[in-house]
Amino acid sequence: MTEYVVLIIGDANRWWTSMSMTERKEAYAEYTRFGQQLAERGHKVTGGAELKASTEARTVQPGSLDITEGPYTESAEQVGGFYQVETDDLDDLLECCKIIAGLGDAVQVVPTVFAAERPS
Questions:
Q1: First-to-last CA distance in the chain?
Q2: What pLDDT, in 10s, does the model give residues 33-91?
Q3: What residues have CB less than 8 Å from 15, skipping those under 6 apart?
Q4: DSSP secondary structure string, 9-72?
Q5: Which helix (H) or strand (E) holds 108?
Q6: pTM summary value
């Protein structure tokens, strides 16, 4: 099996600032459906988390000892959460990801690096 990280990318702050509680509940129901579809279709979720608003982030800048508040980049789009998924069927995993994309966020699926692929 190959392991992938499924990144949910968009305006993560909208979940906390502009969505009503009803809209959030409906969206969370879609995430529940996404998880159910993964399980039913033979994909294995091995980890993941929803992230708080990007204003909660702290960043250590490259080559610096300074810590700044907020995300690393100035962007309207940030990673709002992620799943780690093991699967033999990338195409079907991508089909399942359309559930999340239907909520208005981009979904990026990236394979992880196996230990054997790293230099010794």
A1: 23
A2: 999 999 999 999 999 999 887 778 888 878 888 777 766 566 667 888 999 999 999 99
A3: 24, 27, 53, 80
A4: EE-TTHHHHT--HHHHHHHHHHHHHHHHHHHHTT-EEEEEEE---GGG-EEE-TT---EEES-S
A5: strand 106-111
A6: 0.86
